[in-house]
Amino acid sequence: MDVQLIHEDEDLLVFDKPSGLLSVPGLGPDKQDCLSARVQARWPEALIVHRLDMATSGLILMARGQEMQKTLSMAFEKRRMHKRYQAVVLGEPLPVPDAHGWSRIQLPMRIDYQNRPRSIIDFARGKPSLTRWQRLGAGPWPDTTRLLLEPMTGRTHQLRVHLLAIGHPIVGDPLYAPVEVPPRAPRLLLHATELAFEHPVTGQACRFVAPVPF
Question: What is the Cα–Cα distance from 130 to 150, expressed in whole angstroms?
C-alpha cells in the first residue's frame, strides 16, 4: 500500500493515506509501519497534526516542524479546518435537511473504557458531538447509500458511531458493523475526501481533494 503525496510546501504536507495503514506507530514491533514513519524517512521534520483510523483512507495533513505543528493543531482546535468524508452505509437514512441541505446527527459520545478502542453514545457522560450529512446517491449494492459527511466535532470514531446509532452502519466496518450483517466489502468504506483551510503562513485559501477509491 502506497502513501500518495498530494501537496508539499515549506510549511506543510498533505497525503492520501490508504486503508489498512496506521497514522502513527502502535504498540508492538508489528505496528511500527505507519504513515508518519514512512513520511519521516523522506521529511524527517514532518509531524502529525491529526489522525485517521487505520481502516479509514484519505487526506492527512502534516506539519514541517514543531512550531507549524502547534499552529495547525490550534487551527483544528478552533475548527478552522474543514473536513469532508464519503461513506457507503447500510440502508437509506431519512434526511431532515436544514436550510443548507444538511441533516444532523447530534449525539453525545465518549470512549468505551471497558471495550477499547470502541466509542459509545452516552447521554449522561458523553461529550457533545455533531455530524452533518447529505445523501449523494445509491451505494454499490442493494440497500446501501453513499453519503457525504462533515464532522463538526472531533470525537474518536465519531462518524462510525453516529451512523451506527441511527441504524445505518458503514459498510465494511470491522468494529461496529452488526455481526448478523454479512460483510460486503474487504475494507471500511469511509474516505476523507476533502480538506480546506487557510494557509497559516501565506493566508491563501487551500482546498485539497482525494478521489474516493470505492
Answer: 9
